[in-house]
Amino acid sequence: MLTARGLTVAYGPVKVLHGIDLDIASGEIVALIGPNGAGKTSTLNAIAGLLPHQGEVTLDGEALPTAAEEVVRKGLALVPQGRRVFPTMSVEENLLMGAYSKGARWKGSDERFAPIYEIFPRLKERRRQEAGRLSGGEQQMLVIGRALLSQPKIVLIDELSLGLAPKMVLTLLETIQRFNAEQGTACLLVEQAATAALKIASSAYLLQRGEVVYHGPAARLRDDVDVLHSAYLGQGTARRESAIRR
Amino acid sequence: MTKLIQTLIIGLEYGCVYSLIAMGMVLVYRTTGVLNIAHGGIGVLAGFIAWDLNTLRGWPYFPAIGAGILVAVAAGLLFERFIVRRLAAPALATVATLALFLLLQGLVFVVPWWGNTWGQVFNSPFANKQVAIPGADYSVSWDQLILFGNVLLFFAGLYFILRRTRVGLAMRAVSDDPTAARLMGIRQKLVAPVVWGLAFGLSGLTTMLLAPILLLDNTSLTAFTLKALTVTFVGGLISLPLTVLGAITLSMLEVSTQLYLPNVKGLSDAWPFLILIVVLVARFARGTKALEDTAVAPA
Amino acid sequence: MSGREIFSPQARQRAARFMAERGHAVRKGNGGNGHGRTLVLDPAKLARFEPVRHRLATQIAEGGLPTRRRRVEKREILNVADLTIHFGGVHALDGVNLSARTAEIAGVIGPNGAGKTTFFNCLSGLLTPDRGQISFDGHRLNGSPATRGRHGLGRTFQTPRLFGTLSVLDNLIFGCRTADSARREYVFDPGLRRISHRERSVRLARMVGFRGDLAAPAGSLPFGDLRTVELARALCGAPSLLMLDEPASGLDVGQAEDFVGLLRSLSDLGLSILLIEHDMSLVMGICDHITVLDFGQVIAEGTPAEIQRNELVIEAYLGRAD
Amino acid sequence: MSTVMERAPSELSPERAPAAPKRSPLNRRTILRTIGLTVLTAFVLTMPYDMNWAGSAFALDYGVIIGMVVLSVSVLGWIGEFTLAVVAQMGFGLVVVNLLQNAGMPFLIIIPVVILSSIPISILLGVFALRLRGVYFAIATLAFGYMAQKTFFQSYLGVQGGFGGTDSKAISRPAGFQGSESFYYLLMGSLLLMALICWAVNKSWIGTSLTALRESEAAFSVLGHSPGAYKMFTICLSGAIATVAGAYFGMLQGLVPSNYFQPALAVLYFGFAVAGGMGSVGGACVAGIAFGAIPKYFDSLSEGKLVGYDQFFIGVVALAVVLWAPGGFAYIGRRIWHRLEGSPPAAPEVSTFEIDVRDPLAAAAAAGAETPDGAEA
């Protein structure tokens, strides 16, 4: 459904992505993992139109626009890194902004928000509270809920686990899995904490220094702890990489 | 007692003016990152157009001020479309507003039939009408009441726009986090004109409300704008309620020193500076820990 | 004469001697102190660093790198105790303890948002911590970043912060001025104090492997050169502790290897280095001691080998494997 | 460069080495510079007579003083700030001159004392500059200027119409410089001296350091240089210029009511400085003289019928500068000069005027979101 061909991103003279290819089928959960500085976030930001890039990105065979505000209208939502809630707006208002691209108004918003409140009952309890005062986990729930309200075909989630307790990460991942099973929303997860993400993903990409070094079933990557270990903590990296490529 | 009521009323009056101006500037600053120095100048343009239509061309009062405000709104839209949008950096756009400010202050003299005199009388139909306050030897003029009423209406309207309407919510979203707002599908190209139009219109409205109380001249709003500028600082150029609070505090202090301590020369005019120092000390004693741009708080 | 040229037989000899010396130094260090380098350079690793040695040899041939080895005294130069800072409700650093010794490379690693850069900013005085003591070179470290800089705390930044419109040479001279006005000795090459700013700058630029035009505005350099020049500028300031914030990110493999060789060599000459780095193979390869931060807390410290085996570290990086 | 050349000529870029033998552009440059300097000197010396057709040299005197004020604003561009307190500083200069003249001091003592007297006020402003940046600093200076006018000047100089009442507030020109033309030479000489000092400072290592400070304050400070000291120095330099300008302004006008020192005027002067090119010495002088003198000429030509037109046109010019030449007159002048010389065109220079209007923290956070380290760290 979402395909990227030769995606290249450069910050001035520094190339951080060297023409990578990505394929995500509809209804699939894909994990994009790799160490710091591998270019994961740049990949997401480029696809979502926040970064100028080269290469072709298509959604359902249709080329995606290059401006972020237009991309979301095509059915691709990005949950950016760092829980970017609108801090001075209430939870409800944040959610309404999530549905902005669908032309949402206050009228009928209750029905619209109902499924989100069902997944995250905590949000319903705090719906009148300022988003900036929520806890980290609640903010993460809010941004995921907000992204889902644009009724995307695919949602890209950047560093779900950043700054969250492991238990909260598991809860959120389970929710994503459930939502995926029920609604068929595809999902591209960028994670540094790889193990958890690999558990719910069906396939995975391992990124290193702006290049895809592994693409295949998530299970294989999960089982081969050594490969992961070396990718992250650098033990005989070179040998392992060549092993993966084979 | 009379003195107290007088203090309250005049203090409130100026507080309203300061907060109207300051809010217009904060609105623009928050959503676009531009400090709109021309805020006072736009009001002068609108005021003179309304005065022109009313006094020179014999239009009735209300259509005339309506037209004046409309011109201000149009100026805002044009300024956004042709100047702000072309300048990528907010800093440059700030300088552009400064240029606009000079241009508008001079404009009054350039239009020959507006006269080179300082100050035009622009009375509202309610001039000289007053309401006595029971139990005190003091009366409120209708113009003052209209000012209060309008400010309340404006606050209510702004509150409604920012809380209930799509475009208002979008404005708040942009001011909270421009990048996240883009990801929601909010188009800056639609929000920015609204903001500039609203701010310039607000400036026009302020002049209309002030003109009956003061004379209309090319700097009628400037002195207020400069004070309001220091007031916006109290709200850290960010918070609307804090800005209003700062405005009312400043005006109350000014008026009460004038009335109660008339012998202390200059104290009433020193308040903006003194408040500023207090705010600075408070802000930095509490500690913005970052010395410099490197220090980005973790996300 | 550029770096690409073939050297004279003498230069080649000196290069060979240097390589032998370095190999020797690494092994000797290994046996010398208790917790030192458990990293024994296996043949595969050596092969990987071959280009570095080659390039270093080139630099020596050009008179760039100081070759004279001195006996280096090892003592604690930096001691951080209970360093704590918070932004709003987030504890960016929470009771961090760390120490660094002269002539060693200490690494600070950790996942995204662990507080590594905040830690550096607290050390160099750009941020004021809520709590905690930093003692450096025998006295308590407080005061402005400038004072700390003059006390010998040099650093680079995550994104290189060169003075873009000034020439490369001016950038470097800027560093040298500090060294002279603060009367600092160059730990890694005392001879540098005796030569002019200009000469000193040129020598240090060549030493870090900068081959470009010294008169060019620093802003026009390619990214890799920005990093090397920033390093050279920090060295010009004659630091006794050099803090490097991700010095190898954005560099290609060859440049990164140059860096490794250079840092190792500087440290052998007596300079203390504190390093934040993402490239784990690099960190594991050159650090004597590693501290791992997560959520602003020290979750592990030890030698590279110990860190690689540490369960907590693996968990912090990979998430809970259950 | 010499040491580098001697040590290893090949270490410089290959383009630089062969450039030396070409002598023809050098000659052309020398000729052009000589001609330019001669014309400029002749023009500066004869200006009051060249401009005779337009009225008295009074307008020119006024312009030169405004040139000093704009120079003072522009100098602050070296540390990337802008000030709205110059008008207040002018006022203090004027008051000091008045006090000294009443005490019977000669001119040669007055000016050094005026310069010294500017330092405490500059230091007060400098304390703000250590804490505040960009618009925040400007607002602080604005509030300062506002207070100075409303309290101190109003009580000392009196408001418009009142003129402070007595002759004791009148300021006289120094002996020998009573006429507009002779006073012009004094003023022009002072302006050129100030410009020369500023130019020399900017060319020296102080200027280099200030550039470095502007480019990255963090890097500047961790290298062991104190940003505060450099900022304080620049503010003192700027303050001294503005204060001396105020002293001359008093001598030119004789009696100045406090109304003159309204803070809004500082906004106008800042506009001049932007049009001239923030941070540029020459640009500031040219813009100040032009924007100061030309409106005065037209005022006297039109017998006061054109009062107020100046602001309008200055506004238009400033807007045009912002839109098409953010580097100001200085940038335009440099481009023309390079074309004349036949040397490669000046690099597309970014305006030295870069105030970060937003909260520094917020701006850093916003920038961090777009840069690689923000994205991945």
Describe the structure concisely:
The complex is a heterotetramer of chains A (246), B (299), C (322) and D (377). Chain A is an alpha/beta fold and 246 residues long. Chain A has eleven helices and ten strands.
Q: What does it look like?
A:
The complex is a heterotetramer of chains A (246), B (299), C (322) and D (377). Chain A has eleven helices and ten strands. By secondary structure, chain A is α/β, with parallel strands linked by helices. In chain A, the strands form two sheets. In chain A, strands 6-7-8-3-9-10 form a six-stranded mixed β-sheet, sandwiched between helices. In chain A, strands 2-1-4-5 form a four-stranded antiparallel β-sheet, covered by helices on one side. In chain A, helix 7 (166-183) links the parallel strand 7 and strand 8. Chain B has a two-stranded antiparallel sheet. Chain B is 70% helix and 2% strand. Chain B is mostly helical and 299 residues long. Chain B has helices at residues 2-32, 39-56, 61-82, 90-110, 142-164, 166-176, 178-183, 188-210, 222-234, 240-260, 267-286, and strands spanning 130-132, 139-141. By secondary structure, chain C is α/β, with parallel strands linked by helices. Chain C has twelve helices and ten strands. In chain C, the strands form two sheets. Chain C has a six-stranded mixed β-sheet, sandwiched between helices. The longest helix of chain C has 24 residues, at 9-32. With 377 residues, chain D is mostly helical. Chain D is 72% helix and 0% strand. Chain D has 17 helices and no strands. In chain D, helix 5 (86-102) runs antiparallel to helix 6 (107-131) and helix 5 (86-102) packs parallel to helix 7 (134-157). Chain D is globular, with a radius of gyration of 23 Å. Mean pLDDT of chain D is 78; it is low at 1-21 and 346-377. Chains in contact: A-B, A-C, A-D, B-C, B-D, C-D.
